[in-house]
Every structure is written in structure tokens, then in C-alpha cells.
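Before the break, one more example. Copy the sequence into your notebook; we will annotate it together after we see the structure.
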Amino acid sequence: MLEKVKDTKLELPIYLAGYLGLRREEIVGLKWKFLDFDQRILYIHEVRTSAGDKVIIKSPKTDKSKRSLFIPDGLLELLLKCKIRQDEFKQLFGDEYENTGYVCAHENGRPYRVNSVTEWFADFLTKHGLPKIRLHDLRLVYYTMRELI
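Here is what the structure looks like once it is written out:
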């Protein structure tokens, strides 16, 4: 899966789910201001969810869900690559760029729709003949690996 997702819009969401156990609403709610590249820490302080057509930005549902996570090497490289790419799009789009601060965003800076990542993931699996799982199931990879360490 990781080979097939390379350089696609799903690469970062899949890595965030698998490497750090992030939920969909944490992935689409992640902002650059919640990343400390020097300390290699990612902070979960808010999430984006939806109710119908309305997008809701709120704190994670429990105090335990608010957390700080160490960013491993492979994910750090990917995040830095995505940051550089976003900075290039800011230059390219100029005043048309929407500087929303979201990590998972379209070329014009607008954040992904909350359900988009889930829909893209299902389509990706079908297209590549991979077993049908939920994006949320990638969190199991993270928790399984954590148990082994």
C-alpha cells in the first residue's frame, strides 16, 4: 500500500493514520502550527468534523485524545516534503491561495473535506485491488507496533 500511495494526495493521511494512529478528524484538522519540527512533536489540540454540510472545528472528544506524539523519521521527511510543496503552491497561487494553515490541503490551500479522505481511501483500495479496510483501521498498525516495542 505504501508503495502505491507514494506521491498521491493520500500518502500523508495514510502515514498519519499508520505511523501515529491519528483518526480521520485529527488528520483533516491538523494545522502546521501544531507541529514542532525541531522537537519532532505533533500536537493534537483540535479536530475537524462535519454535520451535514457544516464543518465543525472543536477540541478532541476526551482529554486523553489531546496528546503529543513523537514524529518518526519517515513521517518527518514526508511532512517536510509536504510543507515545501505547500510553500511552492503559495508562491504559484499568490493572492488566490487560501492560507488556512491545514496540513492536508488542496493546491490552493483549502482544507480537504472531512469525508474526502475516507472516500479517496476506499477508491484507492478498489483501484489497486487491495483488501477493503477503513482508514480508521490503519490506527491498528500504530497500536500493534507500539505494543511490540
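The longest helix spans residues 73-93. Helices lie at 2-5, 11-20, 24-29, 73-93, 116-127, 139-148. Try to locate both features in your own notes.
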